[in-house]
Amino acid sequence: MKDLAGREATPVERRLLRLYDGVADLLREEGLAPCVAANLKEAAAALCVAILDLGLRHERPDDLGL
Amino acid sequence: MSDSPYWNPKTETMPREELSALQAKKLRAVVARAYEKSAFHRRLLDGGKVRPERIRSLADLERIPFTTREAWMECQGAVPLYGDMLAQPEHDAVRYHMTSGTTGRRPLRVLDSRLDWKWIAECWCYGFHGFGVRPTDRVFFAFSYATFIGFWGAHYACEKMGAMVLPSGNMATPNRVRVIEEMGATVVCATPTYALRMAQEARELGIDLPRGLVSKVIVSGEPAGSIPATKRLIESQWGAKVGDTAGMTELGTIMMFECSHQPGGAHIIEDHFVEEVIDPATGKAVGYGERGERVVTSFGRGMIPVLRYRTRDLVVKVPGARCSCGRTFDLYEGGILGRVDDMLLVRGTNVYPRAVEAIVREYPAVDEFQIRLWTDEGIRDEIGVRCEVRAGHEEHWDRAAVDLQKDLVRNHEGLHFHVERVPTGSLPRFELKAKRVKDDRVVKGGA
After folding, report:
1. CA distance B319 to B330
2. Exposed site from A12, B100, B164, B194, fewest CB < 10 Å?
3. A-contacting residues in B 74-93 (Cβ below 8 Å)
4. How many helices and strands in chain A, by DSSP H and E?
5. Are residues B285 and B419 in the same domain?
6. What are the tens digits of pLDDT across the range A23-45?
7. CB contacts < 8 A (A, B)
8. Which is it for the CA torsion B387, B393, B398, B402, positive or negative?
9. pTM, rounded to two decimals
10. Residues with pLDDT less than 70, chain B
11. Which of A51, A58, A63 has the most B C-beta neighbours within 10 Å, making it the best mutation to test the interface with B?
């Protein structure tokens, strides 16, 4: 997997993407308690910024309401 | 965590070729999303006959029509409150802000989402970390925390970095200075004008700032942060290094920052923005080293996409290699040099307030000043600089006034400047953006 600059993603970058995808998936679950949904949104937004910084992806997660 | 001098070592030192590839990919994604989600941008791109899928490289950027402040305001007037620019539902927003309105125009209203705010703070982190702020710092904000977006993002950046924030909200100036001393602030954030104002207050209170703990003053909001004489003045009055930053409400955050090497300019955060410099009259790109108008495209703000926004800021872009810090991000030499619409025309001579300030600040006898224009005998434009004299410099004033007047004339093609002393405390003081031009002419800009 390559980043947006054309570099091979490092193992840490791949783990970061997996972590973000996991949080985003969890956030798409129905019926989350407000405390869980709000904190997952905070976590997803923070992880998303790290991904943007590293140029790993640039799609915005518009379905998550971030 | 590494002890890197860069907040984002990967992109801040990225070879230019890779950086361009990164920007091109981000540009394509941002344009596609703006077209899909924002009616304003769909109209803009359709008007320019630009199909998002045809944006493939940075060279395609110039095919996108400019966004202007006027068009933005017009859309907000037509579709209150925010126009039809939003690319996300209003309910995704977590905060409202508006422009400071220093130009007297109707303010722009902006909304930002949770993710936007994380990104806004992130851009400030590039600047604060790059200037040497670390988690052990105590950072004082001389900022009112109201609808002007100002240092809000910087506050969150410091929290994110782990530094201690010392907010000052609506405190009066004497209280702010006392808190800086009592709390042992190591970094102070303010406009350049207000940094000088606090230094003046400290002297009156008997607080010796240069012997205090403040080692960095980070300024924003006015071009003066990169005027060498103003910067030296702030540095001497605080006994601290001054770092310039510049941002705008239209972007939500800063797009440039001065690094700890203080190269006499500010690095553009090029992994989150594309900055073009154009001739304001023709709209054509100008090269490195040439003065022109900034045009910005943002990759980060989600609620409000910003494509090729004409900022009216005057800049000179130079290669990042001009700085010894190792960043590959290009620089704006001398920061923001002024505004395209700042220029005053006085009897056929162009006068830029920033240039006047650069001269006036070379004179330590001047504490505060104002540029005044008026019409004499109903027909002739006159220009003068009204000065408050710094305490302790009274005996040097007569000589300084003569020299200042000569310097102003020499730098303005022989245009006569009046230099006048006014009583201490009679000129206005500013916390946010200073307004030092008082134009009382019958016809403004007349010959």
Report:
1. 5
2. A12
3. 88, 91-92
4. 2, 0
5. no
6. 999 999 999 999 999 999 999 99
7. 67
8. negative
9. 0.90
10. 101-105, 444-447
11. A58
